[in-house]
Design brief:
The complex is a heterodimer of chains A (146) and B (134). Chain A is an alpha+beta fold. Chain A has two helices and nine strands. By secondary structure, chain B is mostly beta strands. In chain B, strand 10 and strand 11 form a beta hairpin. The longest helix of chain B has 4 residues. Classes of the chains: A alpha+beta (146), B mainly beta (134). At the A-B interface, strand 1, strand 2, strand 3, strand 6 and strand 7 of A face strand 1, strand 2, strand 4, strand 5 and strand 6 of B.
């Protein structure tokens, strides 16, 4: 073994300094992408010719766990995310998944027909497709020329 | 309940954390719960949009890697007007402690949630010691 100053004192202050620097960098790196808090669940909205699709990420829930209501141009989704019963008395190492009751109201770009709604739940993603009522659709009007 | 439930935006995995990949998709870090019961360490990860067949759990020595591949939903004839979450793959790496019986790990995936049940090795289980009155 090479006997250097470091070897004798058993401490490498430069290594400690480098480690500190790495940790500081990591701290500041994260500050830039610090997650913004938003309401639950996060949704995406898609618009077609005469319909609108709302998708929401609700991992762990299934069709029975979510209440959907539609009134005019407002969609409301309600439900609860529970944690496993055994987890209540467990020792936690990490807890990042949100849980609790949620209620989210989404304003749609137009009125929808509550009788023609299709909702499906696949792998924790809810997809609701809603149609614009016939009467509300924009109509093309032919112009009569003389 | 009056308290409003909030969530944090999905966190993207930075290239510095994982090296470059061949497939050009966004990769997210799944939100994960880890808790310990008497006999198990349980890992629960949210991977919405991932089908059970597209989950990949890999254990190499002590490094546990979980991956989920998302098939992007095609919305033909639609345009996205509002987006609060992105679609992409999931990946996260954990280092397991020695106290886990790595041969008997059970993995299940349901409704976009991956659950790994990792039994504690016999030597790591807590033992109750009875105290005898002298």
């Amino acid at each position: 073994m090479q006997l250097t100053q470091i070897g004798r004192t058993g401490r490498d202050s430069f290594a400690e300094m480098r480690q500190l620097q790495t940790e500081m960098n990591r701290l500041f790196d994260n500050a830039g992408v610090f997650p913004a808090v938003q309401v639950y669940p996060p949704v995406n909205l898609w618009i077609g010719d005469s319909s609108v699709v709302v998708t929401a990420e609700l991992p762990g829930l299934s069709a029975e766990d979510v209440d959907l209501t539609i009134r005019e141009d407002v969609l409301t989704m309600r439900g609860e995310r529970r944690q496993a019963e055994e987890a209540e008395h467990a020792g936690w190492h990490r807890r990042e998944r949100p849980y609790g009751t949620f209620s989210r109201t989404i304003g749609l770009p137009f009125r929808v027909d509550p009788d023609r709604v299709q909702a499906k739940f696949e792998n924790g993603v809810l997809e609701v497709e809603m149609q614009r009522p016939e009467a509300d659709r924009p109509r093309k009007i032919a112009i009569n020329g003389k | 309940m009056a308290q409003e439930m909030t969530t944090t935006a999905k966190r993207e995995v930075t290239p510095a954390e994982r090296g470059e990949v061949t497939r050009s998709t966004v990769v997210y870090r799944p939100d994960t719960d880890i808790y310990e019961t008497e006999d198990h360490v349980v890992l629960v990860a949210d991977m919405p949009g991932v089908a059970p067949a597209d989950v990949d759990v890999n254990l190499e020595r002590r490094v546990l890697t979980i991956r989920g591949h998302v098939h992007r939903q095609a919305h033909d004839g639609y345009r996205r007007v509002h987006a609060e979450y992105g679609e992409g793959d999931y990946e996260r790496v954990f280092t397991l402690s020695e106290e886990i019986d790595r041969d008997r790990i059970e993995a299940s995936h349901k409704n976009g949630v991956l659950t790994l049940k990792m039994p504690k090795a016999e030597s790591a289980k807590t033992r109750k010691i009875t105290v005898k009155a002298a």
